[in-house]
Amino acid sequence: xxxxxxxxxxxxxxxxxxxxxxxxxxxxxxxxxxxxxxxxxxxxxxxxxxxxxxxxxxxxxxxxxxxxxxxxxxxxxxxxxxxxxxxxxxxxxxxxxxxxxxxxxxxxxxxxxxxxxxxxxxxxxxxxxxxxxxxxxxxxxxxxxxxxxxxxxxxxxxxxxxxxxxxxxxxxxxxxxxxxxxxxxxxxxxxxxxxxxxxxxxx
Length: 203
Hints:
Strand content: 35-45%
Strand order of the largest sheet: 1-4-7-10-13-16-19-22
Distance between the termini: 39 Å
Number of strands: 22
Radius of gyration: 15 Å
Oligomer: single chain
Helix content: under 10%
């Protein structure tokens, strides 16, 4: 009961607007430089749980953004990024009833490369990521990323890792992660967020 995305590179811009079935990232995808992936309000994106060796990055699914990712939800219809095992959004997508439940680190996360531009996450919920992706749910290496009015929670490691970049993080809930926001040589705009109940540091 899902739209299966088998992986590879998205070389031209695309829109995902279906809300009556989840998009299932079965293998990692890359949004190529110059391309934009736009998600409509209410879209649910689930990621296949890691398989095989828990120490190998290739077993954790993620979206690598070399171009732009625009996920512009609404308070009534947020855009969801979560584990395949998370039945609370979009129902029992893996069809196993109550046999599985989501865990922190089930999937890798979102990686914004240096080449990415004009990416937006607004009214987004992102959960259960951080699996082997350096243990970061959102790995941001581009200054042209804005995260606002969103919830980043229940992720392994840090919710954000910002590396030599200056993104904006505003009006969001960052909770129940390993850490909140981790920085290396960066000067982001961080304003009006609720950063609490993370296992380690907030910032």
